[in-house]
Amino acid sequence: MPASRTDAAADLSSWLENYRSVFVLTGAGVSTNSGIPDYRGADGQWKGRSPITYQQFVGDPAMRARYWARSFVGWPAVARAQPNRAHAALATLESRGVISTLVTQNVDGLHARAGHRNVVDLHGRLAVVACLQCDRRMDRALVQQDLKARYPHWSQHTGATAPDGDADLEGVDLSEFEPPACPHCGGMLKPDVVFFGENVPRQRLARALEALEQSDAVLVVGSSLMVYSGFRFARMAHERGLPLAILTRGVTRADELATLKLDADSESALADAIG
Q1: 208 pLDDT more than 60
Q2: What is the DSSP annotation of 119-185?
Q3: Residue 257 is inside which H or E element, if any?
Q4: Cα separation, 196 vs 50, whole angstroms
């Protein structure tokens, strides 16, 4: 049975008082109240379509064009999203010295915008676009401007925002849409995020693992941990004997490893926990 809002906040507050260096891992549940949907329901199953994979993006021109067409329509909603009270609460806990490092599976950049300083964007950020040929990085807003100039009539299209920053477009002819190319070398452009089927960059992972080694407890917020890139931190915490608290709606892959499991809304519980 889900914990009540008061009980979850009280239990989390009491748990946090016992530790001085908490490693935090966040997932999509932290940002749902900011208007960015998550991939899975409370049962841990996919809510809708599976996201595009890295292999599909780089190997199938039609899938790549489809992704960029949907991304063009969906990006404004992501760009407008604002941090909610969960992001603010975690930034406050960092400022109080409770949180050592925050690792997020999210690609929306909302933790940084909320004022959180020590953030590891495990899967990258949608606000950055990378060239797969020359490795240059550029602002996603500039790519959006270029696409808008090439396809001005596409601004009229709307669709429900999807978890990976694009939009669900039904009945729209995508055949005319060509993916953007690197303005420097003409190479393939891809959002600077880790797609399904792609590995987390080693340096980024090493930074997260080092932070975990130096922490005395682990708190997971808003993640089902169904993806191994997140689950590994819960498993490592358990192997090292570190207390593991999980705050999220529904089941997670690490429920049996947790020393505290709170089935509650992340935003309300965090905001109330810090007073």
Answers
A1: yes
A2: EEETTEEEEEEEETTT--EEEHHHHHHHHHHH-GGGGG---EEPTTS-EE--S---TT----B-TTT
A3: none
A4: 9
| pTM score over 0.90 | yes
pLDDT digits (tens, 9 = 90+) for 166-197: 777 776 778 889 999 999 999 999 999 999 99
- List residues bridging with 181 in a β-sheet: 188
- Other Cβ atoms within 10 Å of 131 Cβ, number: 20
Q: Is the pLDDT of residue 255 over 90?
A: yes
Catalytic residues: 123
Assign 147 a pLDDT band (cuts: 50, 70, 90).
very high
Helices H / strands E in the chain, number of each:
9, 11
Give me the residues paired with residue 40 across strands: 46
User: What φ, ψ does residue 142 adopt, rounded to 5°?
Assistant: -70, -40
Structure tokens at 58: 């780089």
Torsion angles phi and psi, residue 121, rounded to 5: -85, 85
Burial 16-27 (b: 16+ CB within 10 A, else e): beebeebbbbbb
Of 96, 126, 102, 99, whose CA–CA distance to 30 is shortest?
Answer: 102
CB–CB of 221/270 below 8 Å? yes
252: number of Cβ within 10 Å: 24
pLDDT-based confidence at 146, cuts 50/70/90? very high
